[in-house]
Amino acid sequence: MTRARILVVGAIVVSLALVGVYVAAGGASYTPEKSRNPCEPRPWHENSGGLEGLAEEFTLSALDGAACQLGVTREQLARALATKENRERFSKRFHIDDEKLSKAIRAGLLRAIDDAEEHGRLNGIIAAPLRATVENIPLEQGIELVHDAKKFLSGEGFLSGIGDALEELLP
Fold first, then answer.
1. Which of 32, 45, 125, 160 is most buried by a 10 A CB count?
2. What distance in Å separates the CA atoms of residue 82 and residue 153, rounded to the nearest whole number?
3. Tens place of pLDDT for every residue, the chain, 171 residues?
4. In whole angstroms, how far apart are CA 117 and each of 34, 72, 113, 123, 168?
């Protein structure tokens, strides 16, 4: 047998072994993990520190809260909020108008503020004015906050001027 044939046969054997290991490990019956129920409380991670960690936890909580209000998964809502076209498709598919979406986004943001305060990640002195801000926020700004909670929590954008104060009050 020539060296080329040995290499080809070796490659085939290794490939078959790889497929066998994959099938033995359950690869033949892969099913995606089911989405979490967004209405259930989500655990906040203790090790996600600073403003970056708070922003990530805040965004996930806000998406869960809004998705719960709308009766959809967090993943469906996150994809819908990614672009205006996705939001239009989502609205048609689930029969959700902008008013209903606005209410859900506000509810999600309020839930995120409550969760952050409850888990000791947001000081009550800051939580109250954030709640007041969120209660009447327009839809586009609400979506912006869900997309970039770090900007909201650092006081950039339409909340400019409170970022340093918030940073000082973070636990």
1. 45
2. 20
3. 688 788 888 888 888 888 888 777 776 666 667 778 899 988 877 666 677 788 888 899 999 999 999 999 999 999 999 999 999 999 999 999 999 999 999 999 999 999 988 988 888 888 888 898 888 888 888 888 888 787 766 666 545 444 555 555 555
4. 29, 25, 6, 6, 15
Phi, psi for 109 (deg, rounded to 5): -65, -40
C-alpha dist (Å) from residue 24 to 27, 30, 43, 89: 7, 12, 33, 40
Distance between CA atoms of residues 18 and 86, nearest Å: 39
Q: At what angle do helices 74-82 and 84-94 cross, to 10 degrees?
A: 130
Structure token pair of residue 12: 């085939």
The secondary structure element, H or E, covering residue 26 is none
Its pTM stands at: 0.72
